[in-house]
């Protein structure tokens, strides 16, 4: 009887290796592990007789072409969008307000991801093995995590700034130079993001996987044991996602309540109405940043929490989970090019400067 090829993607040779720089040639490895099955099919049977799921093979082929193309589009959009936003900010002094300083800090972090991370990840789908050596493995992991930290910490600081500006407008103007304070906060965010990403710089390693000596840039050293990988996955999910988004949600609920109260009690003067509308527009813009961040990073965290904590993850890993994995880290990179789009759509001032 012809042995049936399983629809699951065999992951036995890849314990704890599914992260940013996971090799793309799962099809080759999978077929190598099932070479007897393939031979039996070619000699003894047809598709209908053996129930071979060609969807798996088609998905692997599509993925090998689709992901580099998507990354190329993200790279171009990210460079143009973030580069233009930074250029407009530097060129026009009138844009150097407190919220815009935070937004430019976001763009700097996103531009780092686009320039230093996306090209390395995209080439994995061409070379099928990590070709850049240990140093670039460490730097790539470090920059990715530091940029993520910078983004989420800056979004949190921006939400706090908007909360203070809306709920305590007089405090927002305390001090001789509020912009200097903002620059200091941004500098502190950069230092914090670098410190939080330090384990990835220190411990990332290049290890061989599979039967063909394929190299994987692995952020969690295997000799630390599975507990380290699990701990770091929780560390990232809490530090870079759950805790900041919870704080941001609390601030936005408070802001929404204050804006409703202000709109109800504000006298019908044109100047007062313009002021409240301006605050609302900035709050909407920040909310757009937060929304896209939450959506873009959710699949990535869901996948890795499942993979590292489900004891049967390697056995049940199939097309669904592979699609979720690809979707997760593709969306996480897509987040690096959406902020300029949100700002262009919401900020009429930036739109005018951009169109000049």
What does this structure look like?
InterPro entries: Bombsn_rcpt-like (IPR001556), GPCR_Rhodpsn (IPR000276), GPCR_Rhodpsn_7TM (IPR017452). Belongs to the G-protein coupled receptor 1 family. It is found in: Cell membrane. Strands 1-2 form a two-stranded antiparallel ribbon. It is built from 15 helices and two strands. The chain has one domain: Up-down Bundle (Rhopdopsin 7-helix transmembrane proteins), CATH 1.20.1070. It is mainly α.
Entry summary:
The chain is an all-alpha fold.
Using brief descriptors, characterize the structure shown.
15 helices, elongated, Rhopdopsin 7-helix transmembrane proteins, 3% strand, 356 residues, mainly alpha, two-stranded antiparallel ribbon, membrane, disordered N terminus
């Amino acid at each position: 009887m012809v042995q049936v090829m399983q629809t699951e993607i065999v992951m036995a040779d890849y314990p704890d290796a599914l992260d940013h720089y996971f090799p793309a040639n799962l099809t080759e490895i999978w077929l190598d592990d099932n070479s007897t099955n393939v031979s039996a099919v070619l000699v003894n049977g047809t598709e209908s007789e053996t129930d071979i799921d060609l969807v798996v093979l088609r998905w692997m082929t599509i993925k090998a072409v689709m992901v580099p193309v998507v990354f190329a589009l993200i790279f171009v959009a990210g460079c143009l969008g973030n580069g233009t936003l930074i250029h407009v900010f530097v060129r026009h002094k009138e844009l150097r307000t407190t919220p815009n300083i935070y937004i430019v800090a976001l763009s700097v972090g996103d531009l780092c991801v686009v320039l230093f991370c996306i090209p390395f990840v995209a080439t994995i789908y061409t070379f099928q093995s990590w070709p850049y050596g240990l140093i670039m493995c460490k730097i790539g992991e470090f920059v990715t995590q530091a940029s993520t930290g910078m983004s989420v910490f800056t979004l949190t600081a921006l939400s706090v700034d908007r909360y203070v500006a809306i709920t305590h407008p007089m405090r927002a103007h305390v001090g001789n130079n509020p912009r200097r304070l903002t620059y200091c906060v941004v500098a502190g965010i950069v230092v914090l993001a670098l410190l939080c990403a330090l384990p990835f710089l220190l411990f990332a390693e290049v290890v061989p996987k599979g039967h063909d000596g394929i190299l994987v840039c692995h952020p969690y050293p295997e000799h630390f044991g599975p507990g380290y990988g699990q701990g770091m996955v929780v560390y990232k999910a809490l530090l870079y996602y759950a805790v900041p988004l919870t704080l941001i949600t609390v601030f936005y609920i408070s802001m929404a309540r204050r804006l409703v109260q202000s709109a109800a009690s504000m006298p019908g003067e044109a100047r007062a109405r313009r002021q409240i509308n301006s605050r609302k527009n900035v709050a909407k813009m920040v909310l757009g940043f937060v929304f896209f961040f939450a959506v873009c990073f959710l699949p990535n965290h869901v996948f890795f929490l499942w993979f590292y904590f489900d004891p049967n993850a390697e056995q049940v890993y199939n097309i669904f989970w592979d699609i979720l994995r690809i979707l997760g880290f593709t969306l996480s990179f897509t987040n690096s090019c959406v902020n300029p789009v949100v700002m262009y759509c919401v900020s009429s001032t930036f739109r005018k400067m951009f169109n000049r």
